[in-house]
Specification:
globular, Rossmann fold, alpha/beta
């Protein structure tokens, strides 16, 4: 089978959607399918190569600007439209099917238009449901995006959602049914360190430094806890538009460490192993099974998550972590787990056991089955 994957960004860009697209592409190649990817040339630290082969995946990157992301915290690459159109025509023509990751990107709209022209089936994976913004400009931009998304969603041959809440949103918003395929985690790679001994209590955050992810909430929590217990340390991994603000607001907080983006997975694994808990203070608009949460659970970390969407349902409250409504509750639970080592140990064991449900092999087998059934119905 010849599969064309269209994603606004792709490996080695660090992000949840990008990692899902990469893992699926890699496993398709392992099963002897031919995979090509059309994406942008945007990386976390500058522009990426125009074309290369990664683990047997042929990747072509179209010129694009990340102006909106850098200046307005809007993760929407502005592609060179002529180049994008030309490249997609070339690759869509020879593909058996086109797999588009999410609905509201410029690359998604162009790929849908060209796939229709060549009568190629479209598989659309929707990674996020509704994204709620407070500022008028952001609400306006998101509203325009969702209007454009109707074109992509309505022309998809098959829609996949990464969680039940997103599936419900897709049905309510677009009146299209979708099949749920949860994200997954490599539990052979991410492993707990149950024997770790450290007098400090390590609270970990991994994610983009954006308003949506709530990285500013971490600073507030760290500042308040620093006055109570200096043995509670915070490690924040990531980067993004909020980085200058976070650097400035956290510079006088003891035991608050900014690590930037960690692109090496072995290094990321070590940070998970060295930590006691993960906090996930997102304001919403997440995948229903965020990779960061799955990686933390596989590493034996209880997760404290804000109850702002379907992603919170992945945590069994009181068993694999805590689901909280506000910052005060998040602080209370951090202190509680720090002071109750037996509970922390039980939660850690439960977190690891629960993570084993989320297998990449199950994910890819279901995806291939959907590919085949879609092609059979042509």
């Amino acid at each position: 089978m010849k599969v064309l994957i269209v994603s606004h960004c792709f490996h080695p860009f660090v992000g949840g959607l990008e990692e899902v697209a990469f893992q699926q592409a890699k496993m398709l190649v392992e099963r002897e399918h031919e995979v090509q990817v059309v994406t942008s040339n945007i990386g976390n630290n500058g522009k990426l190569k125009k074309s290369e082969e990664i683990d047997g995946i042929k990747v072509y990157r179209v010129s694009a600007s990340d102006f909106l992301y850098k200046n307005f915290d809007i993760p929407q690459p502005i592609f060179n439209a002529l180049e994008l159109n030309s490249v997609l025509k070339k690759f869509v023509k020879r593909a058996d099917l086109v797999h588009i990751h999410d609905r509201f990107y410029m690359s998604s709209i162009f790929a849908t238009k060209i796939a229709r022209k060549f009568n190629k089936p479209i598989i659309l994976t929707i990674h996020v449901g509704e994204v709620v913004y407070n500022k008028l400009l952001y609400k306006l931009f998101y509203g325009i995006n969702e209007r454009l998304a109707y074109y992509v969603v309505n022309n998809a041959s098959k829609i996949l959602s990464v969680g039940e809440e997103i599936s419900e949103y897709v049905y309510n918003k677009f009146k299209r049914k979708s099949e749920v395929i949860s994200n997954a985690v490599d539990t052979t790679f991410f492993q707990p360190d149950f024997e770790r001994h450290d007098n400090n209590f390590i609270v970990l955050f991994v994610g983009r430094f954006t308003y949506k992810k709530g990285v500013d909430i971490i600073v507030d929590i760290a500042r308040r806890l620093n006055k109570i217990d200096k043995s509670i340390r915070f490690i924040c991994i990531g980067n993004g538009p909020k980085m200058p603000e976070i650097k400035e607001s956290s510079k006088h907080i003891e035991n608050f460490i900014l690590k930037g983006i960690v692109t090496n997975k072995d290094d990321l694994k070590r940070y998970y192993k060295a930590s006691d808990i993960l906090i996930f203070p997102s304001r919403g608009g997440e995948a229903s099974s965020p990779l960061v949460i799955l990686e933390a659970l596989a590493s034996g970390l209880p997760v404290i998550v804000k109850n702002t969407g379907g992603h919170a349902k992945i945590i069994n409250d009181g068993e694999t972590g805590f689901v909280v409504d506000n910052t005060d509750e998040m602080i209370e639970k951090i202190i509680f787990l720090k002071e109750n080592k037996d509970m922390l140990k039980r939660m850690s064991s439960s977190a690891r056991k629960y993570s084993e449900r989320f297998s990449w092999s199950k994910n890819i087998e279901k995806l291939i089955s959907i590919y085949n059934s879609t092609l059979d119905h042509l």
